[in-house]
Amino acid sequence: MQAEAASSLxxxxxxxxxxxxxxSAAAATGSDFHYLLGIxxxxxxxxxxxxSSTSSxxxxxxxxxxx
Length: 67
Description:
Elements: H1 2-29, H2 33-44
C-alpha cells in the first residue's frame, strides 16, 4: 500500500511538472494550453519517458528521430 501511494505521489508530482511546462510553452509560443495538453495526453499519457515500441518516437509528443 505504501509503495502504491509513493508511486501515485511520484506520478502526481511529475504530472504537475508536465502541466507547468505545458502552460509555460503555451504562454511562450501563443499555442493553446488545452491543445498541447490534449496531444500530450493522447500521445504519451503525460509520461515524459514514453517510448514507442515500433519506432523512434518518444516523449510527450512522440517525436521521431527525423522530426
